[in-house]
Write a structure and sequence with these properties.
Pseudouridine synthase; 10-stranded mixed sheet
């Protein structure tokens, strides 16, 4: 096996949406050999653990764990908790009486191809729909933001982002499914902040990080857990949220 901590903005494979960036797998194969294959995918805009196999037998064994839903994937996400009216009616009942997110919740909504946006998915039933389940746990609250641990039970493209948007709590800086008007600015957290005219967001990219992946090793069959440390921009954003917003941790 080979595992990489993929930077945000780097596509795993050739991607029309990120055509200007060299795909990670092209660089991997150039260095480690053409037989290396990625076991799963990450959104180009996300960062974190990406697992590869060095041989066909390993690829088959590892891929089987993703297909059977026995690979345990854990993401971390900073979300913007929007008014409950922004949640899909079928999910609005999951929100708390105050309109926030419950300590833990599960979104089970099927996804279909979005005919109006090729390459994207949307919530929908009917022909071609695929079951899709995601589990969420709130780690910290920084109204109107929340820091979540996310566990995808299924592995559909974009499912975490779509399910959170359907809950009315899209991933911060999600250009496809989020609210472009919501930004994380120090001036909104710190009283008396100067320099608003030249201010940049504390976190300027998709706030989604593939933090942890547990699989059984293709040779030993023993569990192996791979972790990608939290990127520096996440650490900085959380530091200021904890310092100035009075966040509550679980």
């Amino acid at each position: 096996m080979l595992a990489f901590d993929k930077p945000a903005g780097v596509p795993v494979a050739a991607d029309r949406a990120a055509a200007a960036r060299e795909p990670l797998m092209e660089r991997v194969r150039a260095r480690y050999g053409a037989e290396v294959a990625n076991v799963h995918r990450l959104d180009s805009a996300a960062s974190g653990v990406l697992l590869c196999a060095k041989a066909k037998t390993a690829l088959d064994f590892l891929s089987g764990q993703f297909q059977s839903k026995t690979a345990d994937k854990r993401y971390l996400a900073l979300v913007a908790v929007l008014p409950v009216e922004r949640a899909m009616p079928v999910l609005a009942a999951l929100r708390t009486a105050e309109g926030g997110l419950p300590d833990s919740f599960t979104v089970d909504l099927p996804l279909v191809d979005d005919r109006d946006a090729p390459g994207r998915l949307r919530v929908g039933k009917g022909r071609g729909s695929r079951e899709c389940t995601t589990e969420f746990r709130v780690l910290e609250r920084f109204e109107p933001f929340a820091w979540l641990e996310v566990r995808p039970v299924t592995g559909r493209p974009q499912q975490l982002r779509i399910h959170l948007a359907a809950m009315g709590a899209p991933v911060l800086n999600d250009l496809l499914f989020g609210d472009p008007t919501v930004r994380l600015l120090l001036s909104d957290l710190k009283r008396g902040y100067k320099g608003r005219d030249e201010e940049k967001p504390l976190l300027a990219r998709l706030a989604l990080h593939a933090h942890e992946l547990t699989v059984r090793h293709p040779t030993t069959r023993e569990p192996v857990t791979l972790r990608a440390p939290l990127p520096e921009d996440f650490e900085i954003a959380l530091k200021y949220l904890r310092k100035f917003s009075g966040g509550r941790r679980r």
